[in-house]
Amino acid sequence: MRKTIASLVAFTALTAAASAADLPRRAYTPPPPPVPVFTWAGAYFGINAGYITTTKDSVTTAGASPFNDGVRAGNRPAAQALPRDGFTGGGQIGYNFQFTPVSGFVVGAEADLAYTDLNRTRSTTGRLGGISTFRQMGDSLGTVRGRVGYAFDRTLVYATGGFAYGAETYRGVFQTAAGQPTSYGSSSRVETGYAAGGGIEFALPTDSVVNIFHSNAVTLKGEALYYDLGRRTVPLVAVGPGVGASAARFRNDGVLGRFGVNYKFGS
How much is the CA Rg of the chain, to the nearest whole Å? Predict the structure, then answer.
């Protein structure tokens, strides 16, 4: 009896196994691909262009010796307006770190260098006919700044500030009513100071037509900065029939607004 039951059980198991082998296999369904998550983290480079103008637009002059009383006599200006403005354009590189994906705080650093068309010459004629001419030229402005902002997915709002430098040339010349020089001074140097401001940046789709470098993202930004490179005193020493000496004090600060495009690589 036991042998008969065991034989039936074995037969049943073999039959079930054979039937299972004949069943069609279930097809493997891969999991859906992960949804891309945008992040501002990574290195980037780009270009920018905009408008720059000075904010404290005057040069002050004073006699530097007892023999020069042209300012007191009204023959030389105690202050001469010297407004400057023009085009600015250049490039930047930087790196961002984002604490959380999609939205969250972003910190980074950026360095830029731009051409500036800040050239202006002004002349005035004094009470006794003396001609006073001042010229200030700014050819470049660069910054190395930190950035702190908050990302709303593909939109980044940020504040920025740090070191600034620029190439400046200062000149002053005093002439007689007949145009003969009596005093002259000039100085060319790289001035240093600080810059601060803020901006907003927006990331375009990766397959944007402007993504010529096949980067992870292309971003567009608008930015405003205030810069201050300090003051510079230039001695105006006597030449020709001139006597004594004067000193001209130039100021060097302003604001700029610019737009830019960045190509981001990394994450």
Answer: 35
31 has a pLDDT exceeding 80: no
Contact 206, 217 (CB under 8 A): yes
User: Residues 1-16: what's their mean pLDDT?
Assistant: 50
- State the Cα–Cα distance between residues 248 and 60, nearest whole angstrom: 6
Q: Which residue has the tokens 């000075």?
A: 54
Which tokens hold the place of 119?
Answer: 């050239």
Q: Which residues contact 141 (CB under 8 A, 6 or more apart)?
A: 52, 88, 113, 114, 116, 164, 165, 166, 227, 256
**Beta bridge partner(s), residue 111:** 93, 144
Closest CA relative to residue 61, chosen from 51, 75, 76: 76
Q: What's the pLDDT tens digit per position in 179-214?
A: 999 999 999 999 999 999 999 999 987 766 566 666
How many other C-beta atoms are found inside a 10 Å radius of the C-beta of residue 263?
19
Q: 65 pLDDT exceeds 70?
A: yes
Name the token pair of 70. Answer: 């042209």
Nearest 5°: phi and psi at 72?
-65, -35
Tokens of 131: 């001609």
How many angstroms separate the CA atoms of 85 and 118, rounded? 5
In this structure, of 14-28, 108-122, 194-208, the range with the lowest mean pLDDT score is 14-28
C-alpha distance from residue 56 to each of 81, 86, 255 (Å):
9, 15, 10
- Residue pair 155/202 in contact (Cβ under 8 Å)? The answer is yes
